[in-house]
UniProtKB/TrEMBL annotation:
It is a multi-pass membrane protein. The chain crosses the membrane at residues 6-28, 40-57, 69-86, 183-204, 210-231, 243-264. It comes from Methylomarinum roseum. Pfam families: Zip (PF02535). GO terms for molecular function: metal ion transmembrane transporter activity. Keywords: Membrane, Transmembrane, Transmembrane helix. This is ZIP family metal transporter. One of its GO terms (cellular component) is membrane.
Length: 278
């Protein structure tokens, strides 16, 4: 089979398959989903932060050239600031001609909060798209090294994406998206895996130089979402039982991503490094 066709098929598996597997969450009856959603938010915090600090950022610095290290740190800072500005612009747009303070003064703070949550959904889709694009580059690089390595890498990517995608569905539903739209936008974001793989096939060497910046931008988006949007929502309930549940689920997200990431991280690091030298 042609190598490009392999890359297209397995980047689709690595991206779309993980979304469809996580989409089983959407099949649950609405009362069950509503009970699970707050727990999914806590889990998503642990997953997003672990993907960022244990996977994306270390990977970016390992792939970077020595003269890129300082600029990569700056990219994380700039990325967080850019996502703050983007979210602010999204909220302003949804407020239309009324200021958010006016909504609060008139007792309509639910309008502001709902659009603030929707902006979080937009950010998670953008961050996921960048992350998936990088996954596509990594899968293609592995295939260019060895076909079997490419297959294993795509399956590893799908495996460590599934728990993160479950968290993403929880965030999108909490942000006001319907089940259909949450699934549609997540699948759309997953298709950037295929785009990354195809572009890498034709110009891997050029993309390899930009790879660390894609990784740090994806990380900055996930960090911003977890810290600025999701963590504050957990402070609305302060009773001991709920707080302990939140902590436990955050740790569960950390541990699951940590354990699943081990194999994928080792394979992905080896793949691009060898392929880039071809």
């Amino acid at each position: 089979m042609d190598l490009l066709l392999y890359i297209i098929i397995f980047t689709a598996i690595g991206g779309v398959l993980s979304v469809l597997a996580a989409g089983i969450f959407l099949l649950l009856p609405e009362p069950h989903r509503n009970r699970i959603l707050p727990h999914g938010i806590s889990f998503a915090i642990g997953a997003l932060l672990t993907v960022s600090f244990w996977g994306l950022i270390p990977h970016a610095f390992e792939e970077a050239k020595p003269d890129q290290l300082q600029s990569l740190s700056g990219t994380i800072l700039i990325g967080i600031l850019l996502f703050f500005i983007l979210e602010k612009l999204l909220i302003w747009r949804h407020c239309h001609s009324h200021s958010c303070e006016a909504h609060l003064d008139d007792g309509h703070d639910h309008h502001d909060h709902s659009h603030g949550r929707r902006s979080t959904g937009v950010l998670i889709i953008l961050g996921d798209s960048m992350h998936n694009f990088v996954d596509g580059v990594l899968i293609a690089a592995a295939f260019l090294t060895d076909t079997h390595l490419g297959i294993v890498t795509s399956l590893a990517v799908a495996a460590h994406e599934i728990p993160q995608e479950v968290g993403d569905f929880a965030i999108l539903l909490e942000s006001g998206y319907s089940k259909g739209k949450a699934l549609f936008y997540n699948i759309l974001a997953s298709l950037t895996t295929v785009i990354g793989g195809v572009l890498a096939y034709f110009s891997l060497e050029d993309l390899h130089d930009l790879l660390p910046y894609f990784l740090t931008l994806a990380a900055s988006s996930f960090i911003y979402i977890a810290v600025a949007d999701l963590i504050p929502s957990l402070h609305k309930k302060t009773d001991i039982k709920t707080s302990l549940e939140q902590i436990a689920l955050i740790l569960a997200g950390v541990l699951l991503i940590f354990s699943l990431h081990g194999l994928a991280h080792d394979i992905e690091i080896d793949g691009p490094s060898v392929a880039a030298s071809h």
